[in-house]
Structures are given as structure tokens and as C-alpha cells.
Design brief:
Layout (H helix, E strand, L loop, with lengths): L1 H16 L7 H15 L3 H14 L19 H12 L5 H10 L2 H5 L5 H25 L1 H24 L28 E3 L2 H7 L6 H6 L5 H4 L9 E3 H9 L3 H6 L2 H4 L4
Length: 265
């Protein structure tokens, strides 16, 4: 239950990052920072990187969340580790994505270079770090007995959910040419909506898997997104997606798409 709550705090932070959870900008930022403590993703870092994701989704080299997938494959040793972890449900992917994407000040500074943005980024990194150091000092090893398994459960939920949203969908390449961002309605073709039972969508995942509609209407809070009449181009039942995705090695799932493998997810 604690691991699930960590995931739900991540969803709430996501909504705050879009300033969609509250009408007040300040309340969104306050609760976004609070949520970041539970999901261990710095709020300002997330906000800046994620804004660029929504701007440049579809262009593999421009979107900071997919840029690495357009680079050469990692070493064969790393590929084997990735495939092994994906096959045996070892949740490393959202962890590595979070650490590399949101805890690296240099990477965040590439999209948020102003002094104010760098200050916000640093504060958002220090806040959860100070809280966790304080809890460990106060509780000692008991903290890890409570937190560690819950955090693994959180990652285990996050891996399939986060990977389902965009991987293995054909993306465009700029080929070094100037390009324009895709409109919000065009972004659905580069997103995937996972269909789950209504009660799971509403109460467990907080409508986070309704991803095509989210890209079309990013300023609508997740708790209202299901009310929007929207049919996603890439919509698939969760069991079908998970079965098919687990049948593909992680390297092919991440670095290739349905045009390469013939597997429609």
C-alpha cells in the first residue's frame, strides 16, 4: 500500500507540474514539492524536463525523455543486463530514468539555464535529500525496513506504466533540419493509452494511463481527464500490452518501434 501511495504521489506531482491540480499556481508548486518527497523526483527538475517533453514529443532528438534512444546502443554487457531485468521483472528502468533525467543538474540546466531556474532546481533536489537524511537520523535502520520494500513496489508499478506511454511508438527524426513542435492534437500519435478497468483507472492509477488525452489536454487534471471525449490512436488493453511488451527484449522494446519489429503495441 505504501508503494502504491508513492506512485500516486508521483501522479499528483505530475499534475502539479502542469499546474492543473489546483487553480492557484502557488498551491500547485507547494504540493508539487511535497509530492516530490514521496516519489523522490525533484519537482522543479521534473517540471522543466517534462515541459520540453510536451513541447517536443515525436521528435526523438529534441524530446529530452527520448533523446538517449536516438543514440548508439549501449555495450553488449549493458544490453544483457537490461534484457535480463525486463524479463524477470527487476524494476530498474524508471529508477535509472529518474536518476539520469531529474537528478543531474547539468542535464536540467540544458533546458532551464537561467539563474532562477537553476536555483529552483537545486532547492527541489535538496528538499527530499534533507528530509530523507533527517528521517534516517531520527529512525535509523527502522526507516529502511519500512521504506525499502515500499520503494521497490513503487518502482515495480512505475516500470510498466511509464514505459507503456511512449516506447515502441514510431518517432520522427529531425535529420539535422529545423522542425516545428507537433500540435497537442497531433501528439496523440506518439502516445499510448492503456485501458484498465474503470475502478483501477479512477482509484488506483488516478487516470494516469489516459495518456493520449493528457497530451491533447495537458492542463486538465487527471481526475477530470476521463470526462473528455477522446479516442486515442494507440489504445490497448493493459493485459495485451504487457504480454506483448514482455515478449520483446528490453533493448528492442526501447530502441526500436513497431515498424522495426512488426509488433503493434
Amino acid at each position: 500500500m505504501l508503494g502504491l501511495l508513492f506512485f500516486q504521489w508521483f501522479v499528483l506531482m505530475h499534475g502539479c507540474g502542469h499546474r492543473a491540480l489546483f487553480a492557484s499556481r502557488r498551491l500547485n508548486d507547494i504540493f508539487g514539492h511535497i509530492a516530490s518527497i514521496f516519489c523522490l523526483i525533484p519537482y522543479a527538475s521534473w517540471q522543466y524536463i517534462h515541459a520540453q517533453h510536451h513541447r517536443w514529443i515525436g521528435w526523438i532528438e529534441k524530446d529530452p525523455t527520448t533523446r538517449a534512444l536516438g543514440e548508439p546502443l549501449p555495450s553488449l554487457f549493458v544490453q544483457r543486463i537490461m534484457n535480463f531485468c525486463w524479463r524477470f521483472w527487476i524494476p530498474i528502468f524508471s529508477l535509472l530514468f529518474g536518476v539520469a533525467g531529474f537528478w543531474d543538474p547539468r542535464r536540467v540546466a540544458a533546458v532551464a539555464p537561467s539563474v532562477r531556474q537553476r536555483r529552483r532546481t537545486l532547492i527541489s533536489m535538496l528538499l527530499p535529500a534533507f528530509v530523507y537524511v533527517g528521517l534516517i537520523a531520527l529512525i535509523g535502520s527502522r526507516f529502511f525496513e519500512i521504506w525499502a520494500l515500499a520503494f521497490v513496489c513503487y518502482l515495480s508499478i512505475g516500470d510498466p506504466v511509464l514505459l507503456s506511454q511512449h516506447v515502441h511508438v514510431p518517432l520522427q527524426r529531425t535529420s539535422g533540419q529545423p522542425v516545428r513542435p507537433f500540435s497537442r492534437m497531433e501528439q496523440d500519435q506518439y502516445s499510448r493509452t492503456i485501458i484498465v478497468p474503470d475502478w483501477v483507472a479512477q482509484w488506483i492509477l488516478l487516470q494516469f494511463t489516459t495518456h493520449g488525452a493528457h497530451h491533447a489536454y495537458p492542463n486538465i487534471a487527471h481526475y477530470d481527464i476521463a470526462k473528455v471525449p477522446f479516442e486515442s490512436v494507440h489504445a490497448i488493453r493493459w493485459s495485451e500490452w504487457l504480454t506483448a511488451a514482455k515478449g520483446i527484449p528490453a533493448v528492442r522494446l526501447l530502441y526500436e518501434n513497431s515498424n522495426d519489429t512488426g509488433v503493434i503495441l
